[in-house]
Amino acid sequence: MKRDRLWKSGALLALGLVATGCGAPAANGGGQAATGASRAAASSQPVTITFWYGVGTTLSQDIQQMVQAFNQTHPGIKVVATYQGSYSGGGEEQQKLLAAIKAGDPPTIAQIEVHAMPVFAASGQLLDLTNLMQSSSVDKPSNFLPGILVSTQYQGRYYAVPFNRSVPVLYYNKTLFAKAHIASPPSNWAQLAADAKKLTSGAGSNKIYGFEPLVDWWPWEYAVESGGGSILSPDLKRATFDQPPALSILETEQSLVKQGYAKVETGPNYWDLMTQDFINGQVAMDIDSIGSAGKVTKGVGDKFQWGTALLPRGKTLAVPPGGGDLAIFKDATPAQQKAAWTFIQWWTAPKQSVQWSTETGYLPVQKADLNDPVYQAYLEKHPQYRTAIEELQYEHPSPASPAYLAVLQPVQQALQGIFDEGKPVAATMHQAAEAADQNLG
């Protein structure tokens, strides 16, 4: 499954600056009413809408099959869906979207990474969906699962609906836990640290580590806010992630690494390597996307028993959103906007939402999905996904700053310094905060 994070940290700054500098797109005449013969011709033709998305391989195939089903059952609308490269921050799809906005020729609908929503909403080019959602029998805000809408809002208004959504969860090796006489996964960081020490055994190439932190800004968001800290000041003008409460979980993780109870992976494939370490039984616990559960299921097979659990609490528990949402661009004609909204409501209705979730492993989005017999059977077969649904009640929005993606560049570099090179946590994050302030100013 495609990962739900920003891959290219080096492109974050450029993306943030380009996006916040975008003006209104040039008029292309698309909103003008048809007249005469053109109106007559249009009435007999389906309304064509374009849909850009950024998940490839089997996920792209799933999208194309569902779009085909929609087109067959809605003869008055034709959705043309195209894969545009990765939707993650700095990814090709987002770069193309920014360029299309600047040129005044965006698609009708686009998949937008959850942390990039402020970038695009602040551009003024997304259609405000608030009134449409409140009057919808399908996508009324109260119909969605608690927490799932946190990334779809900007300054109190809805600009998107959930699409491919995920959360990070704790993965743990039940077989190793039983061997170490640990009855249940840790519920807080003191327990995790104690369990990691008990679970560590062996040496050299045969060593099993108790824990493996993911050297990535996504679980860092969780660490900062669950530790009792904050990422940015309330006015979004100053980085605050270098304050003591924001550092407590990072310091615990680094201490486990330095003491030999945890390992880290480095390099461009660090995330895949970490997931593979768990599959290989080399680590007893890690924090990974629920989107990796399918890969873990296939990779582990019957080698050992495993499960997922809520992320360990610090002072509190704050779960960051992951994945992407669907937005409509204002540049579309009224007919296209109406068709786009019809398509989005169809996609998010329980029948299609359950189909998408069970085929891909992404989270369901509607409350009604959980009562669907197909999804209930899916959870019986894949109980690890229950954790992700339970975590939604703790989901917390990321800072709604159009410059947020640019803030994450120095953060990612700082995390690599802390875990890959053993640099001091407080001093390194303070330097990252100073760099982030320059992007916020």
TrEMBL record:
Keyword Cytoplasm applies: no
Native organism: Alicyclobacillus acidocaldarius subsp. acidocaldarius (strain ATCC 27009 / DSM 446 / BCRC 14685 / JCM 5260 / KCTC 1825 / NBRC 15652 / NCIMB 11725 / NRRL B-14509 / 104-IA) (Bacillus acidocaldarius)
Lineage: Bacteria, Bacillati, Bacillota, Bacilli, Bacillales
Family, similarity comment: Belongs to the bacterial solute-binding protein 1 family.
Keywords assigned by UniProt, alphabetized: Signal, Transport
InterPro entries documented for this protein: Bact_solute-bd_prot1 (IPR050490), SBP (IPR006059), SBP_1_CS (IPR006061)
GO biological process: transmembrane transport
UniProt protein name: Extracellular solute-binding protein family 1
Domain of life: Bacteria
Signal peptide range: 1-26
One Pfam family linked to the record: SBP_bac_1
